[in-house]
Fold Prostate and testis expressed 1.
Amino acid sequence: MDKSLLLGLPMLLCCFRVLSGSFLGKDHSDRQTFVDPSHFSEIVQCRMCHLQFPGEKCSKGRGLCMATTEEACTTGKIFKKDGTPWLTFMGCLEHCANVDDMKWGPYLVKFRCCRSKDLCNELL
């Protein structure tokens, strides 16, 4: 496994957030969490796993996250150029965008977002 590319994964995820506009024009310094009971139906539960290799269980960051109205459940899959799966990651992401076959070094990245129902990103 190419450890330098694996270490670059957090940087790749940050690029998705920046490209999708999650940092544009926002001041996060005074961010507070508030759950309005009238919005419970808009919150979607998502599967979370930071690292999962093909044929294995989640190796890091296994659990659930709650996608608020500004977020979506997401699944990212990284493939070798020959189409062989290399790594999957799942979670909640603000300003999520679907991406097909983005080149990242010797890999291709596919990114999917959903809000259709709880745990919708398990099937992506």
